Amino acid sequence: MLAPLLYYTPPQRAIYRPDALDAADFARLQRQPHLQTRADWRSSRALKQLLPQPRPPFSLAHRKGHAVLFWGAPCVGVDLEFLQPRDFAALLPWFADDAEQRWFMSQTDKQLAFYRLWTFKEALLKALGADFASLQSLTAATAAPPGLRWQRYTWLLDEHWLVSAVLAAPQALPTPQVIGAASVITLPSF
């Protein structure tokens, strides 16, 4: 059984080929030609072009020109965030329930705790195709789709990029392989 894959690229390593865009991205680019000037677009589309055909279920995330793509299970979600200082305590009530806020307050590294929780919830949101308004109600106890079970992962890539991924499959899958990062540190997932 093949392990799920997480591809990562910083903007300077993305090999973007506009001639290899899929029909939906090509149509979107025709409507919004300025997208091609955005590093996020080029990086995420470069990764999307690595997928086998026919395209399996996948999830994309991008920020500041960096992008990740996750695939290899019937249901997948991924999120990527740059580690930076913020008013974490002020942001938490907006998306975290009471138990998650208590967990956050018990953590010594508030920056890592915040981003572990935020990226987990965003990945779960994407995997379920949920509406952003439901972010607070998505928790570690959220049920997987019928017949599937969750697996969760968190990595620190190239020292500054926190990535969380969730997958749901009928049986446990091997740990995802991470491709493209110079350094990968596996962290406890939320």
Question: How is this structure best described in words?
Answer:
The protein is α+β, with helices and mostly antiparallel strands and 190 residues long. 29% of the residues lie in helices and 26% in strands. It contains five helices and eight strands, in the order βααβββαααββββ. The chain has helices at residues 23-31, 39-48, 88-95, 98-106, 110-128, and strands spanning 5-9, 58-63, 66-71, 75-82, 149-157, 161-169, 177-179, 184-187. The radius of gyration is 17 Å and the shape is globular. It starts with a strand and ends with a strand. The model has no long low-confidence stretch (mean pLDDT 96).
Q: What share of residues is helical?
A: 25-40%
Termini separation (Å)?
A: 26 Å
Radius of gyration: 17 Å
Mass-distribution shape: globular
Major sheet: arrangement of strands:
2-3-1-7
User: Helix count?
Assistant: 5
Task: Bin the strand percentage.
Answer: 25-35%
Please trace the helix and strand order, writing H or E for each element. EHHEEEHHHEEEE
Number of strands: 8
Query: Tell me about the biggest sheet?
Result: 4 strands, mixed
Helix/strand class: alpha+beta
Mean pLDDT: 96
Model regions low in confidence, pLDDT < 50 over at least 5 residues? none
